[in-house]
Amino acid sequence: MNKYFYEVFENIPRQGPGLKESTQKAFNSIKRHLPSRPEILDIGCGKGSQTIELAKISEAKITAIDNHQFFLDCLEEAAQKAELAEKISCINADMSDLPFSSNLFDVIWSEGAVFIIGIKEGLKQWGKFLKKDGFLVLTDLVWLKEYRPAELIQHWKQEGLTVFTIEQILEAARQEGYHLIDHFTLPRKGWIEEFILFLEKTIAELRAKYATIKEALDTFDAIEFENEIVIKYLDYCGYEFFIWKR
To answer: What's residue 1's pLDDT?
Structure first.
């Protein structure tokens, strides 16, 4: 990932598909099982749209981690403006090498980030940081239909991305000792209106800024191709919210 890629994602509200209402729905499915002030770890928080929402709808103490400091700085600023800074602590850390002791958190949360290490590794590695009967809540890209477009398969193969079916992920979680609470598909709005439209607007502005720089234009082309192919096949794939109890 080069600086032009990061500049695109630094200039949009969310760094992946998501929706405030979906964050609320997922949290409400476990809320009654949590202590009054739960400890939540938000992994791969980005600029923290979901972090801020969790802080608004709970009395949780939230630890937010990302390995890109700019995102954490944005989250800290947003928390200050929303008067939520006392609820949110930011740490620059790698999700595959978390700097925490075992059995520490009531909830581990991760929206649109687990693909970085892979869903199976996330299930395996992150569970140890949960308290007994703690919850793992995350979203990941999944196949929604049995038919899988060849063009989409080829694209993801070139990107080095492995996409599973919902049942494959549920089975992997069962094997790691998780009990399913609920799962649901992120609405299309969470892809299009909350993510892709912001990408398109930002890239249009950056194309003008970097009109003579080939590396920048190639980067923007790659992101836009990803957008186009996802929109084309959005009936066949989507982001799925998974809520498990350890």
So the answer is: 82
Query: Residue 210, Cβ neighbours under 10 Å: how many?
Result: 16
**Cα of 64 vs its chain's centroid, Å:** 12
Q: DSSP labels for 62-120?
A: EEEEES-HHHHHHHHHHHHHTT-GGGEEEEE--TTS----SS-EEEEEESS-GGGT-HH
Closest by CA position to 88, among listed 108, 59, 68: 59
Q: Report the C-alpha gap between 163 and 174 in whole angstroms.
A: 18
Amino acid 27 reads F
Q: Which pLDDT value is given to residue 142?
A: 97
pLDDT digits (tens, 9 = 90+) for 176-204: 999 999 999 999 999 999 999 999 999 99
Coil vs helix vs strand at 29: coil
Distances from the Cα of 119 to the Cαs of 110, 131, 177, in angstroms? Answer: 11, 20, 14
Percentage of the chain exceeding pLDDT 90: 98
CATH number of this structure's domain 32-191+240-245, picked from the four choices 3.30.200.20, 3.90.1010.10, 1.10.10.10, 3.40.50.150: 3.40.50.150
